[in-house]
Structures are given as C-alpha cells and as structure tokens.
C-alpha cells in the first residue's frame, strides 16, 4: 500500500459568497488579463461597494483556508454576471466576441453603459429560460497542478461554482479567463470557443492571454450529467416561490445559520428575522402541508426551542438539494 504523508500545512477549505470586507484581499487576486494598470485596478476595487448590491445579477464566491491567519485566507475568487438576451447579444457571446471581455464589462459598468438586471428582471429571464451567464474571471494565487494542495483548492472551487450557478434556467454559460486555467475549465465541462481577434492574442504569455469557453443548454442536453458545468443546466420551476427577502435569508443561512450573521445583511431586527423565518415556514406548510411531519406547529411559540431549529434544518436541507428555490422566478402572465 502506498504511503500517504501528512502535508506540512493541512488545508481547511470552505467556500462562501464574497462580502464587502473581502474586497482588498480578493482584488489582490484580480487576473492580469482583466487589468495590469494600477489605476484601473483601483477603479475596479472602488466599484465593488456598488456591485455587492446587485445580487443576484452579480454572483461572487471565494474559497478560503480557515487554517491561515486572517487577511491571508482567500485562495480563490470567481465572479459571474447574469445577463439578459439583449446584453448577451451586445457582447456577441453567442458568436465570436472581442477578447478582454471582463476589462470592457468593468469599464461599461463604471460608465453606466451596462445596467445589470434587478431581482424581478432576472426572474423573468430565468422563468423564460433566457438567462445567460458570463464568468468574468476565476483565479487562484498559483495554478501548479502538480501540487496536491492546488487540487484541493480547485475541488472547493468546483463546489462553490455549483452552489452559485445551480438552479437557474440557463440558456448558456460562458467564461473568459487566462489561458493558464484552460485545462481546469475544460475538465469542469467548458468547451473552447474563439474570439473574433484571436490572431492578435498570439504570443501573449498564458497569465495575460484570455481564452473564451462556454456551453449552451442545447449542448448540455447532448451530454450525460457528470461535469460541474453540465450539472448546472439541471433546473425545475421552484415549488415554494419565496419572496426576495426570504430567498436572501435562506441563501445566507446555507453558509452561516447563525441569526446574528444574517441580521446585518438583511437590515432587520431580531423580531424581523423571526418574522421572516415564520413566513418561510408558513409558505412551506401552505404549499406542502406534510413537509414538517410531526414537527409542524407554531415554532415561535412555547415550542420554539424544539421546533424552530428542526424546521430550519429541514428547510435548509431541502434547498441545498433544490437550489431553484433560491432563484428569482417570475413567469409571464
């Protein structure tokens, strides 16, 4: 039997959504193909206070090692945008776009030339099956695939991608990233695409040379489930149709179910948070009366200490398997 040596540093990898407090640490990972200019990087960093308010049209996840000191934990960062058909067409994503998409998108967002969709607009595109995802960038501090610890970071990144992208009714998912990550994205399920100005990119080193990859819904349906990307195209309409605030609470609770962590992000008091949970439980019981079994009842009354945590556990276990419940869904009348 082959001997397995204990590494000098044991990773404690987790993934979670990016927070505003992470901006300085994540921007240090901004890929070279997005910006090599210090002034432009500073401008992108300044954008994130506004971009953080644009969920769900902005999806940003990070991977961190809890065994490292604070301020040195983030080992991976990815950013995706949810686009309407018109926005995808303007960027020529379904054909051969010009390279350096991410650099152009950040500039268009700063200048107001690109206005991302709100929750209701995302819901309309989602229900119509017209949502297009553009992964602006994904990066690690280094990408030496001979390093077993890099494998662990990439595995964590795959799970982060699944959680952030499953449950949407995608028309297509595209990605621009540097060529150094080409093999990682290929193994995730992305297929190579071409830029219109492909010839102009020849000679650039891999960390600076962008590549364009993607997968459409029609292409995904011709594949068996298996890769991370292919599995993101599995989607059904949500059963419970939670409100936007309820969906946000459930999303936050997937990563930290402590009430103290959710209240500031939601802008509610303890009473307001209890009201949100009560609304979630009532909605579930209205749609599916037998969902909680013997634990049904007033969880916020005398039985709160017993019933509340159990109901929360059951709801969170369900939405982890059915991520469409956390996505906007507004069918046409």
Query: How many domain modules?
Result: 2
Examine the coordinates and then state which fold CATH places here, giving the name of the CATH topology of the largest domain: Aminopeptidase
Q: What's the helix count?
A: 13
H/E topology pattern: EHHEEHHHEHEHEEHHHHHH
Distance between the termini: 63 Å
The CATH architecture designation of the largest domain is 3-Layer(aba) Sandwich
Structure notes:
The chain is 41% helix and 15% strand. The protein is an alpha+beta fold and 333 residues long. The protein folds into two domains: 13-231, 3-Layer(aba) Sandwich (Aminopeptidase), CATH 3.40.630; 244-326, no CATH class. A seven-stranded mixed beta sheet has the order 1-2-3-4-5-7-6, sandwiched between helices. Strand 4, helix 6 and strand 5 (170-178) form a beta-alpha-beta unit. The radius of gyration is 21 Å and the shape is globular. The termini are far apart. The relative contact order is 0.12. The mean pLDDT is 92. Residues 292-311 are annotated as: Disordered.
List the keywords.
333 residues
Blueprint (SSEs and pairs):
Elements: E1 13-17, H1 23-27, H2 38-51, E2 58-65, E3 74-83, H3 85-90, H4 101-111, H5 119-127, E4 131-139, H6 148-165, E5 170-178, H7 182-188, E6 191-193, E7 210-216, H8 217-221, H9 228-231, H10 244-255, H11 259-266, H12 270-287, H13 304-321
Parallel strand pairs: 4-5
Antiparallel strand pairs: 1-2, 2-3, 3-4, 5-7, 6-7
Region (Disordered): 292-311
Brief summary of the model shown:
With 333 residues, the protein is an alpha+beta fold. The chain folds into two domains: 13-231, Aminopeptidase (3-Layer(aba) Sandwich); 244-326, no CATH class.
